[in-house]
Amino acid sequence: IVFEGDDAGILIQGAGHIPGTALSPGSGNIGIAAHRDTYFRPLRFLHANDVIALKTPAGTSRYTVTETSIVQPSDVGVLAGAPGRDLTLATCYPFYYVGNAPQRFIVHARSCTRGRCD
Which one of 9, 25, 46, 117 has the fewest CB atoms closer than 10 angstroms to its CB? Predict the structure, then answer.
């Protein structure tokens, strides 16, 4: 479940839509955040060309992972719109860090075209 917002109260319940990012496929870069030790723990296994499905009331959209990166928490530029950047997932990093993690793990993905992810 993806809730609206990315504050601590939201992220304890599930993933959160990052305010200021797109809301629907085709309208920009959708940003979603979640905790590394719960909902986004599987992100550590993602690689380029893996496929992510995002199910909404409007239907299911599929995205191909283009890259992953590790950034500082202050690097909000990873949420900016860019060609081929249609979905950005963010979580704390390192995955096995105890306490407030010092970095962020970012997954960038592009929308699949014509129902296919190449």
Answer: 9
Active site residue 17: no
Structure token pair of residue 81: 């719109």
Candidates 17, 92, 108, 112; catalytic one = 92
DSSP string, 49-109: T-EEEEEETTEEEEEEEEEEEEE-TT-GGGGS-BTTB-EEEEEEESTT-SSS-SEEEEEEE
Tens digit of each residue's pLDDT (9 = 90 or more) over 62-108: 999 999 999 999 999 999 988 778 999 999 999 988 888 999 999 99
| 11-30: average pLDDT | 88
